[in-house]
Structures are given as structure tokens and as C-alpha cells.
Amino acid sequence: MKNEKTPEWHAEMCHPANKYRVQMVKDEIFTLEGIRAGMPYGSSSGTWGSSGKMRTEQHGTPIGADLTYYAGYDNAFYRLKIDFPIERMKDLVRRNYAFCEAENNIIEEYKYEGDRDLLRDADAAHKSYDRMSSLVFDFAPKGMVWFG
User: Fold this and answer.
1) What is the pTM of this model?
2) Is the dihedral of CA 125, 126, 127, 131 positive or negative?
3) Quick one: pLDDT at residue 38?
4) Strands (E), 1-148
5) What is the pLDDT of residues 30-82, one digit of tens each?
6) What is the pLDDT of residues 85-140, one digit of tens each?
7) Residue ranges making up the domain that contains 101
8) Phi, psi of 36 (to 5 degrees)
9) Which of 38, 125, 139, 141 is most buried (CB neighbours < 10 A)?
């Protein structure tokens, strides 16, 4: 069995506007490795797609979530219990995603560990690729949640 590094990422919770802030009541993010992971303490923040803050790193391959939260704008509690597609999540956490152009280098959407271009990138002063850094949950009215 390969000695692979356990994926490390941050959980973020955000909303489209401050009036749609939610407060987490109960949270659990399930990982393939059985490592406990969860949401940040407190309420959502930021804008759609980015909370603007992160808490302690979470570890493992996220494969599902069980979240209960309060949405003041709806005056309601909601529960999201979802399983993520395991093979897809295993693939997503193994990828190194492009985030910065490098001189004289063609940038692709992502590369895998061991890719020749990724190895060359590791020696560069500014890296062009990095692993998944966040699992983002976007909360919207009527209990709608988008994640990515």
C-alpha cells in the first residue's frame, strides 16, 4: 500500500449576503479514513463561494456530511444529510489545482502527484499548483445548500 499523505483542507460556510447568515447547531463531516471533521465554530460569513475565514485544518477524504443549522431569515432549523460520491471525492483530493501562471509553462486545470510538470513546478520559486484547500458550503434561503 502506498504511503500517501492524508488530505488536509478547511471547511467553510458562507452565504450570498449577511441577511442570509446561518448558525450551525450540529455538524459532522464524514471522512473515508474515519477522522472526525467538522464546520467552523459560529455562523456563516463572507459572500457566495468564500467565507473569508478558515479554522483549524480538517483531515481525511470527505465522503458526506450531517449538518443541522438555524436560518434566522426563515426562522427555521434545517438538516442536511448527504453522502458525497466516494470515488469522485478520492479523485478530487488527489488533484493539484492550477492557481497561478508560471512563465514558459502551459497551465492545465489540474495535475496529479508524480506528473512531470508538477515535479518541475515544485522547484520553481512560485508554485502553479496546489492541493484542494477548502470544502465550501454555501447556505441560501429555504434550506438550499450548495457545496464545492
Assistant:
1) 0.81
2) positive
3) 93
4) 8-14, 22-31, 58-59, 62-71, 76-83, 95-98, 110-112, 129-131, 134-140, 144-147
5) 999 999 999 988 899 988 878 877 778 999 999 999 999 999 999 999 999 99
6) 999 999 999 887 777 666 666 677 777 776 766 655 555 555 667 788 889 999 99
7) 8-147
8) -65, 130
9) 139
Has residue 57 been placed in a domain? yes
Count how many domains the chain has. Answer: 1
The position carrying cell 506528473 is 115
**List of residues 6+ apart from 33 with CB closer than 8 A:** 6, 59, 60, 61
Cell numbers given for 70? 438555524
pLDDT for 23 equals 95
For cell 500500500, name the residue. Answer: 1
Tell me, letter by letter, the H, E, C secondary structure of 98-117.
Answer: ECCCCCCCCCCCEEECCCHH
- In the predicted structure, residue 1 carries a pLDDT above the cut 50: no
Contact, 13 vs 46, CB < 8 A?
Answer: no
* Dist. CA 118–CA 38, nearest whole Å: 31
Q: Which three cell numbers stand for residue 138?
A: 454555501
Question: Is residue 2 included in any domain, yes or no?
Answer: no
